[in-house]
UniProtKB/TrEMBL annotation:
Gene3D superfamilies: Dipeptide-binding Protein, Domain 1 (3.90.76.10), Dipeptide-binding Protein, Domain 3 (3.10.105.10), Periplasmic binding protein-like II (3.40.190.10)
Solute-binding protein family domain: residues covered: 99-441
Lineage of the species this protein comes from: Bacteria, Bacillati, Actinomycetota, Actinomycetes, Kitasatosporales
Protein name as annotated: Twin-arginine translocation signal domain-containing protein
Highest taxon of source: Bacteria
UniProt source species: Streptomyces chromofuscus
Swiss-Prot/TrEMBL GO biological process terms: peptide transport
Matches recorded under PANTHER family: PERIPLASMIC BINDING COMPONENT OF ABC TRANSPORTER
Length: 543
């Protein structure tokens, strides 16, 4: 690939989550950003709404819009959802089936198992400033992703299997693979094509972090007010496969549950759609004529242990604390039945799911026995937790479960930023309880596993486990599974890796739960609820 000089260095790995919002499902890790990039002084009532087909689609998003908007870095729920409307990959994926379809490219390669894929760009495709999309823009993005000196989140999704990206002609590129990797086609949606003439200028990557977004997708960003709202309008020059159905959109960032629900309910509802609906509000919203639908997926409450702090370096202690949790009660009381106790790292709907060899069914006697075997008594634990509403609802059950086996437990829910700032700064902690949903990136189990586990993975640095001999063997086994050409054998190898993750319980889900989306069917048609944070309206229209 061409040598590229990056005028803005990538964030240090230890502070990566602060910039990326890598807890997308937990409400995006917010950066300290206050600048308004466009438009008037910040307000959540931008625009007059219009009338009929010319009215504004107003959406209420239950996550912050102040994470990084850099598509190569972000895991912020709000920003990823917005970027899926602003940018295109060579291929994009359906938000529900996750099947790839041609976006900027004219077709999906016929030979998915090949080691070279050639893509021709869509004739007439332009960025939102009117400049044409070229092969140089494609190379610009992949250069950034694969550059060994630039540690982007996207790098981990591409570098293991993608060797090179070459310019064939002005609108044609070739992707050269290290080995056959059919799953890579779906991952191309994670490489959003960005205009080189915009993002190669000094300071542009910092602007991308703050909210600058210029793509070739059906909607262009018109204003961005961190912690408030982001507005969009249909891009008149878009000639791709999923044209815009709404002239204008206003996405409100409302993290608190009560005002978010209020915005979509009642006679004076100011929005047509809202995500992250609390389970307790489902009945009331449905009785008011709204459709409330959910999707079961990888969304989960996980526990992460500091393995450098005793006794959490002992796998028996980690296992004991999982066995102790009354997950049935947690699902019934906190999740109102909208979840399942984890029986694997993967959720049961995942194509690679297999019940793990180690399943943490509620077994307080076994928990006590494991603590005794480990020589641990009088244990006191302070749970450092994110203050996302449904996570907070789950904490009392975890506390009572641990108290019941003689572990004196206190709860410390805090702003997500504060939780991960502590870990960025290498401050001491015992156990973190938070939420995650790798389905934002895709469904393939290799990707999901690598999002949380890997020798250079930030999560493993937080858990301080990457140098453990079991971890090193796991990472080697994961690499072998990635390279395995036979899909049946690959699936079995990944499942074996998941079994190790389950047994070690370093970072492991307690429950998988549904995410609920509500919309007004009298206003919107063609909506589909997705099992990961955010919304996608590329197939929706006015009713």
């Amino acid at each position: 690939m061409r040598d590229v000089t990056h005028d803005v260095p990538a964030p240090h790995r230890r502070s990566f989550l602060k910039y990326s919002g890598a807890l997308g499902a937990a409400g995006a890790v917010p950066a300290s950003l206050t600048a308004c990039l466009a438009g008037p002084e910040s307000t959540i009532d931008t625009g007059d709404g219009g009338r009929g087909a010319h009215r504004t689609l107003t959406a209420v998003i239950g996550y912050g819009n102040d994470g990084t908007w850099d598509p190569t870095q972000t895991a912020s729920a709000f920003c990823m959802a917005a970027n899926n409307h602003i940018y295109e990959g060579l291929l994009d994926t359906d938000p529900i089936s996750r099947e790839p379809y041609p976006a900027l490219a004219t077709r999906v390669p016929a030979d998915r198992a090949g080691t070279s894929w050639t893509f021709t760009l869509r004739p007439g495709a332009t960025f939102h400033d009117g400049r044409p999309v070229t092969a140089d823009d494609v190379l610009f993005v992949f250069d950034r992703i694969l550059d060994p000196g630039t540690q982007t989140l996207a790098k981990g999704f591409f570098e293991p299997w993608l060797k090179d990206v070459r310019k064939v002609a002005e609108r044609t590129v070739e992707l050269v693979l290290r080995f056959p990797f059919p799953e890579g086609l779906s991952r191309l949606t994670l490489a959003k094509i960005m205009p080189q003439h915009v993002f190669s200028r000094p300071g542009a990557w910092n602007d991308a972090i703050k909210g600058l977004a210029v793509g070739s997708g059906p909607y262009r960003q018109t204003a961005h007010h961190p912690k408030s709202n982001t507005t969009f309008e249909a891009y008149a020059g878009y000639n791709g496969p999923r044209p815009p159905a709404f002239e204008k959109m206003n996405w409100l960032s409302v993290v608190d549950a009560a005002p978010r629900v209020a915005r979509i309910s009642g006679g004076n509802a100011g929005a047509q759609i809202a995500d992250n609906i609390p389970y307790a509000n489902i009945g009331r919203l449905e009785s008011g004529g709204l459709t409330v639908a959910g999707g079961a997926g990888m969304n989960n409450l996980f526990l992460m242990f500091n393995t450098r702090r005793k006794p959490f370096d002992d796998v028996r202690v980690r296992q004991a604390l999982h066995y102790a949790i009354d997950t049935g009660k947690l699902v019934e009381v906190a999740l109102k039945g909208h979840g399942k106790p984890s029986s694997s790292f993967l959720d049961e709907a995942n194509p690679a799911y297999r019940r793990a060899r180690t399943v943490y069914d509620h077994d307080p006697d076994r928990a006590r026995a494991l603590l005794k075997e480990a020589g641990v008594g009088g244990l006191r634990i302070d749970i450092l937790a994110v203050n996302v509403s449904w996570i907070v609802d789950c904490l009392p059950t975890i506390k009572s479960s641990w108290d019941a086996i003689g572990v004196r437990t206190t709860l410390s829910p805090q702003e997500t930023t504060a939780v991960f700032t502590k870990m960025d700064q290498r401050q001491d902690y015992q156990v973190v309880a938070a939420a995650s949903n790798p389905n934002q990136f895709g469904l393939d189990a290799d990707l999901i596993l690598r999002y949380n586990y890997g020798p250079d993975n930030l999560w493993m640095r937080y858990a301080r486990w990457a140098d453990d001999p079991v971890a090193r063997q796991l990472f080697a086994d994961m690499d072998r599974a990635t390279r395995e050409p036979d899909p049946v054998r690959k699936k079995a190898m990944i499942q074996d890796c998941v079994d190790v993750v389950a047994e070690q319980a370093v970072l492991y889900p307690v429950v998988h739960n549904e995410l609920m989306t509500a919309w007004d069917p009298r206003e919107l048609a063609g909506m589909r609820a997705q099992p990961y944070p955010g919304i996608n309206v590329l197939r929706a229209r006015w009713a």
